[in-house]
Amino acid sequence: MNPTRLVIGTNRWRHSLPSALKERLLQEQCWVDTAEVYGLGRSELTVGELGAGIPVATKIMPWWWRSPKNLPRYSEQCRRRLRRDMLDLLLLHFPARRASGGWLQALAAEAFEGRATAVGLSEYTLPQLREAVRVLHPEGIQPRVVQIEVSPWQPNALRSGMIPFCNAHNIEIWGFRVLGGGALFGQPRNAHQAGVQKALAGVCARTGMSPVSVVIAWLRFYGIVPMLGVRSLTHLEQALNAREADLPPQERQAFEAAVFA
Ligand SMILES: NC(=O)c1ccc[n+]([C@@H]2O[C@H](COP(=O)([O-])OP(=O)(O)OC[C@H]3O[C@@H](n4cnc5c(N)ncnc54)[C@H](OP(=O)(O)O)[C@@H]3O)[C@@H](O)[C@H]2O)c1
Asked: What CATH number corresponds to the domain at position 118?
């Protein structure tokens, strides 16, 4: 589903992109991730300017005051902002607190009725994902992607059993906030963050890799597709260059000693 093994996050896209960035995204055919809530629709509108030639994932909020029977309307609004007749990947942004089965069935109907090529789930824990797979199974629909937070600050998902479950069910894991929302480069807020930054600096010094390359290569070891919040051509190029980066096992272990400390 994701030949480039990299997803570009757009939660801070608000205005038309510089044409050089647009062209590069189209050329690379990176997946782009957005959501109806990002910038109250402005991220989707900006993604829509890229045209239909790029694969897009978007997410719908199953807020408690919303009814799953209205999901086709929300999905239609996403398609209109994104300027496309069909969504490549439609996800629930988080597990619904009310009528969670109804939301899953409504999501499945979007795929079944041809309005989305694939569906996915976001911010589900392993037990919630297991239950969702069970509910979707009789509908003949399998989630294709689960989005979870995974970063050097939040590595727990790597040891939660999520990975073997997703492998067994052919579900891709897309990791978000993999750069800690930028915190990887800022002032550490606690001893753990300071330790991770020090270990990362050591790996970079010994290997000549950039911090972004180390993180992407580290996640690739676990089969996780990184989603990176990118707004500039410079950051896009750094992310693209990082796709092929290889982290030697001893360096991964040195990094993980700090991450899992
Ligand atoms: N499913 C969900 O619930 C969920 C939740 C959160 C996020 N997401 C998705 O995941 C995407 C990524 O999350 P995120 O943007 O919060 O976190 P992120 O990718 O960890 O961090 C983005 C930050 O890193 C900086 N950055 C990016 N590339 C860099 C580079 N090469 N060198 C130095 N700094 C770099 C950005 O700088 P600038 O400020 O200069 O751009 C920005 O401050 C979002 O855009 C969204 O699509 C999904």
From this structure: 3.20.20.100
Please report whether residue 136 resides in a domain.
yes
List per-block mean pLDDT (blocks of 10 residues) for the chain, which spans 261 residues.
Answer: 72 94 93 97 97 94 98 98 97 97 97 97 97 94 97 93 96 96 89 95 97 95 95 95 92 97 94
At residue 2, the pLDDT reads: 42
Please tell me the distance between residue 228's alpha carbon and the centre of ligand 1 in angstroms. 5
Residue 99, domain extent: 7-184+222-245
- The CB of 227 under 6 Å from ligand 1? The reply is yes
Distance (Å, rounded) from C-alpha 159 to C-alpha 174?
A: 15
- Report yes or no on whether pTM surpasses 0.85: yes
How far, rounded to the nearest angstrom, does the alpha carbon of residue 123 sit from its chain's CA centroid?
10
What was the pLDDT predicted at 1? 40
Q: Is 220 helix (H, G, I), strand (E, B) or coil?
A: helix
Which two tokens mark 100?
Answer: 């969670």
Q: Is 131 in the pocket of ligand 1 (CB under 6 A)?
A: no
pLDDT at 200: 97
Looking at the domain assignment, is residue 202 inside a domain?
A: no
Q: Give the nearest ligand 1 atom to 232 CA.
A: 41
Give the side-chain half-sphere CA count within 13 A for 258: 21
Q: Is the CB of 81 under 6 A from ligand 1?
A: no
Number of domains observed in the structure of the chain: 1
Q: Ligand 1 in contact with 229 (CB < 6 A)? A: yes
